[in-house]
Design goal:
It is a single chain. The protein is α+β, with helices and mostly antiparallel strands and about 280 residues long. The chain is about 50% helix and about 25% strand. It has helices at about 1-20, 95-105, 105-125, 130-135, 135-150, 170-205, 210-235, 245-260, and strands at about 25, 30-35, 40-45, 45-50, 55-65, 65-75, 85-95, 155-165, 240, 275. A three-stranded antiparallel β-sheet has the order 3-2-5, with helices on one face. Strands 6-7-8 form a three-stranded antiparallel β-sheet. A two-stranded antiparallel sheet has the order 1-4.
Amino acid sequence: MDILLYSVIAAFISTVGAFLASIRIINEGNEALVERLGQYNKKLTPGLNFIVPVVDSIVVEETTREKVLGIDPQNAISKDNVSLRVDAVVYWQIIDLEKTFYVVEDITSAIENLVVTTLRSAIGRLELEETYSSRDKINQELLQQLDEATSNWGVKITRVEVREITPARTVMESLELERAAESKKRAALLETEGTVKSIEMLSKALQLQPDAQKVLQYLVAQRYVDANEKLGESPNSKIVFMDPNALNQAMTDLMLHRENPSSIPPRTPGDSGNGSQGS
């Protein structure tokens, strides 16, 4: 009798233990794969699941939520042979865990290497200036190519973002010099245009004045005094004697030329006043 009781108790405990061992709880957002005697058997979804103890085993449990993969800065060469450093971030998601586990050995490494290769290829088809203005185009191109390449891996590439495109230091220095020269050139052109417009405005204003000659003499004298003050402030200053009459005559000729271009006879070098310079 005691032996029978002990056998029943042992059987009950074994049954309860086997039942408990067969229970598997999968958290929300995760999935798991079950193999039976070394072969794929089924997929476990979130919630309460049952497997056969000893015979079945869970080989992988993985999240199906979106993941972020950062790509370290990589060397790339643009279409115009400029060396660049490019990095990116990839958002991806497992949509078929069975394919992801059995088709590719290391999905993260596979995606990373594929992104690097595709990124270098995309940069190689663009010139340096295009890489800055076509970043959205690069992102879309990468997304399309990566999504197609990873379709057999059971994953979905949801978004690709190129973060930084940095030329080599020597290239950056050359670009800075080029931009500085361009800015200086534009500034010189603007200054020249401003001077021409000022002269034109002054000429028009003087034509409307009955005593234009006196006004012109006053303006020339004022500029003459200002120029002497600036020369005096210089540590290597020189005293320059200028003939205001020569400037007056030049401005008068300009005004007459605007009124009647054919009325001014040709001038010879001896017609203008000469300035003298001393040190």
